[in-house]
Amino acid sequence: MSSVAVLTPESFAEHRSGLKDQELTGNDEAYIPTYLEAFPPLPEKTAAEAKAGEPSGAWGSKIKPIKASVITQVFHVPLEERRYRDNGQFGEGEEAKVCLDIMQRTGAHIELSLAKDQGLSIMVTGKLDSVMKARKEIVARLQTQASATVAIPKEHHRFVIGKNGEKLQELELRTATKIAIPRHDDPSTSIRITGTKEGIEKARHEVLLIHAEQDKRAVERLCLEKAFHPFIAGAHNRLVQELSQETGARISIPPPSVPKDEIVITGEKEAVAMALGRIRALYDDKKRKTTTISVEVKKSQHKYIVGPKGTTLQEILEATGVSLEMPPLDSPSETIILRGEPDHLGPALTQVYATAKSVTVVEVTAPAWLHHYIIGKKGQNIGRITQQLPRVHIEFTDGEERISLEGPTEEVEQAQTQMLEIIQDLLVRMDYTEVVIEQRFHRHLIGKNVNRIKEQYKVSVRIPQDCEHSGLVRIEGDPQGVQKARRELLEMVQRMENERTKELTVEQRYHRTIIGQKGEKIREVRDKFPEVVINFPDPAAKSDVVQLRGPKNEVEKCGKFLQRLIAELIENSFSLSVPIFKQFHKNIIGKGGANIKKIREETNTKIDLPTENSNSEMIVITGRKNHCEAARERVLAIQRELANIKETEVAIPSRLHNSLIGSRGCLVRSVMEECGGVHIHFPPEASGSDQVTIRGPAGQVERARRQLLQLAQEKQVNSFTAEMQAPSEYHRFLIGRGGANIRRVRDRTGARVIFPAPHDGEPERITIVGREEAVRLAQKELEALVKNLDDVVEDSMAVEPRHHRHFVCRRGQVLRELAEEYGGVAVSFPRTGGAASRRVTLKGGRDCVDAAKRRIQEIIEDLESQVSVEVVIQQQFHRALVGPKGSRLQQLTKEHQVQPLSSTLFGAPQENGEAGPHAEAAPRKCDIITVSGRPEKCELAKAALLALVPVTEDVEVSYELHRYIIGQKGSGIRKMMEEYEVNIWVPPPEQQWDVVRVTGQLTNVGRAREGLLQRVRELQAEQEDRALRSFKATMSVEPRFHPKIIGRKGAVISQIRKDHDVSIQFPEKGDEHQDVLVISGYEANVAGARGALERLVAELREMVSQDVRLDPRTHARIIGARGKAIRKLMEEFKVDIKFPPPGSEEPDRVAVTGLPEAVDNAIHHLLTLEEEHMLSVTETETLAAYMKPPSRGEDSNGAPAKGYVVRDAPWNAPGGDRAPDMSSAEDFPTFGASVAPKQSSAWGPKKV
């Protein structure tokens, strides 16, 4: 990259004068570099470089063309055709600028070189399209342009242009010329070509080739009277088509709607001549033989004579050989001219009159508003007429009372009769009215309101569009319905005029909670305030504004209700996370979710547990803070009851914490798993604490503490780590059942073996930690075990066929468990019976196969010791035993390791009919459930099955409380049934029984009964509490104090309401008693709130207001950023301070209101602040007066700027009073050309 300095004689003189005035002596002046230091010379060329720069003659050799996307073109511009002949250095003039611009615009790469004859050689490289465009622009901008004209017939010009100008563009690119073709309205036939001589010759040649090709074709234009065109074309253009096929010429006859007489014939010359002769002969024949007659036909009948798309005219021409000349549609003339041979005119005239009279037009009058009722829904009424009379056309004119019927006379009369009957019927039973309603209410009417009115009164309501700017609403329909709809619309508008809109600010994160799932919660609010419209912003709008619209009182009530709801949401959003051992999660949930539901109900919190397949042990509790803490204690209490949980702390240096945790927590996780899943919590890294917390069962906590201390000691003494790889399916076998195998390895070697977690990124990596010799020994033992597992053997054992089903049932679950537990051993049972059916094959590692054989033998022993126990339970209870989707039966089977069997449990036919005399002695077969398993397990399962048999119990509940127990839409009773897993039956209201029936398992029924009685007690307490809370008292307070009592954004009154738990209502605008406040709540609370209000009013009566004058320039500083400073001051002095608004007549007047002493203190403080801020304001203004920007032509001392200065520059040489000539090769030598050295030059000797 190079820098160019442009010097003029004036700037050169200024520079020299600046240098003369400046003294270069003294240590205080900045160092001025010499010219050679500031602009070091370029290095000299070496011989090799000079030789490399010479042309090698490689261009002379023939290079085979290679097809590629990048091409190169070279062309030459002679000296006499160069547009720019710069006298200066080549490559720095206008030519270089033009080339740079072309490269940027086309993307091609351009290189210029100067030939010996001073001609210009240009090499363009790039993609074909870019090269062609760049070449065209280079020729146009760097080469002098010549021009020439080529004259070719006007009709050939379009062939030069081509379709969409594509031919012309291609020609211009190929020849690098500009070709100008005259416009179609220009009579000139000359085409102008501009470009280089070579390009002009190429383009001229191409144009003449196009002309020669088109010259072989002929074009004839024949002007014949328009009236004879139909005879030449023939009926349906058949005659002209036959002529074109016979001669091969193309014949173009203008359509009847185009007022042109010219017929164009194109094609080969012979074909054109033949077609021309045939057409002219036909024309002469028709002109000689034909004559004309004129007839008058009503203008309205003309369209029937013409027919659709002129078909009727063509039919008359075909049938009679007579052409009809119709007057234009916009002409008032009714005269039709018939042209043809005399003996054919009569039949043609008859056909014209018959066609004209075959169709009649009748108009029926009906009010415009009735038209869409006449048409009917989806065109039902009018469709009935058109189906009966398909040739009748019915046309309704928009905005007019006229209906046109058009068609055959008889059918039109029938249609007219039916239409008049429909109109008469509608006029009798239909009416309309118009109501003027302001346009601002239209959007509130549209939708549910108008739809309800339409359906209720069977009317049509038309509300104008916004773009119509009209307030006229039209109601149409039954006369009585129209009047009722009109009255209701006016009532709605009157209500809307009394409505108000209120905006609540609610954080967007609470919107979804307020709305509820599928809008249930907001629907309840809307049901409670049906007259209030609640609009939430779109989630994408990121807005916090909720809009309420409706009657003023209802909007206020709804706003207060929503504010209380939001306050509860905010209060209930506190969250706690409690770590609970995974094995105790099911106990916290309880049977059927009983425990967790009870905790949620009693603490009023939301408790979320992790999913079963999750590794997390955290239980998240959400609600009020005190409720969350209570729920946490309840959950921890359950864990403490189930296990002897202990918590202890051990001191381990913080520098060892990371090494004890291990990579991704693998080391500490292995300790926790080995010690029964205890929780080990390390302090945060930045805390610097040494205390590590261990929590879990007492014995396991002590064990984990010892292991941690041992690990820490090992880390301090000697810590060594090794890793090895083993297939993940071997890991469970290496660990052994209950960790027995890996424990033996650790006991023998003293090293710790860490296996990867299930979702670890490297599932085959095993880490061994400990002393080096212990790690080496453990690694050797593990590698030996893995090698034995890799040594695959195949063995077999005998298993009785009756036991096979146990292993392969449930999709081979037992076999999968064996494979997982014993290193992926493959166990194969025979598919068929016979002698070999007892043989079971095992394949895998030697140790795995042996262990799997022992396990299979244990399972067979368990199976052979099984017994069957029969449990008699009535068939009607079997479905309850199975549970939803068989969940209860599956849980019982898994818990007691038995198999219950019954004909009805698996969907077999049930037994019906009455019991016989021996029913009690011999139970029915369908009532028997057979349980198979070990004897002790069968007895436990039998007891569990009997416990699942449902019972029914009646609970005495007062009839008056039934509806509260049922809850809104049955939510209360449904919640209890889900919580206690019972069915609760409430008698119908008309029976008025004081009994509620509970059916379910015995334990669940007992809990449900207690829950019902508890709910009854709560409802009775609520009734009593509601009566106590209904106490009301009134208090008279002057209206001028109301704003102060309410406070900023309701802060004062909200605090009083909160402190005393009361409701305080202020009078509405327009109320008779504007000074009366109503306080409601408990009697004691009402008395306390009344006393607080009386004290507040007494303080307000003592308040005074005083003005103080403060300089307006200090107001912003006193107020502070966003009013923070003034708010703090008002809170400190307990006063109210108001500053004047912008544009006030007294901008320095500030009002202070409060108690006299507080007002005096606040004013004194404000005056002190003014004094402090005025010092700062005065100082700022004084500095601003002196801080004016320096002039461009002066430096910091006021002297003229000298710019960049160097010493020993060429222009400072003796005799160098003139500015250097930039066009001189002596003053500014270039890189390419050699210049004769000049001894007196200031540049020194020429470098070679």
Automatic annotation (TrEMBL):
Does Glycoprotein show up as a keyword for this record? Answer: no
Keywords annotated in UniProt? Cytoplasm, Repeat, RNA-binding
Query: Which PROSITE patterns does its entry note?
Result: KH_TYPE_1
Superkingdom of source: Eukaryota
Q: Does the keyword Ribosomal protein apply?
A: no
Q: Which GO terms describe its molecular function?
A: mRNA binding
Q: Which Gene3D superfamilies match?
A: K Homology domain, type 1
Principal place of residence: cytoplasm
Where is the protein found, in the record's own terms?
Cytoplasm
Record region (Disordered): 1189-1248
Please state every residue range assigned to the domain named K Homology: 144-212, 216-284, 289-357, 358-424, 429-494, 498-567, 572-640, 644-713, 718-787, 791-861, 865-950, 951-1017, 1029-1098, 1102-1171
Concerning InterPro entries, the annotation shows:
KH_dom, KH_dom_type_1, KH_dom_type_1_sf, KH_Vigilin_N
- Name of the protein this chain belongs to: K Homology domain-containing protein
The protein's organism comes out as Gadus morhua
Upper classification of the source organism reads: Eukaryota, Metazoa, Chordata, Craniata, Vertebrata
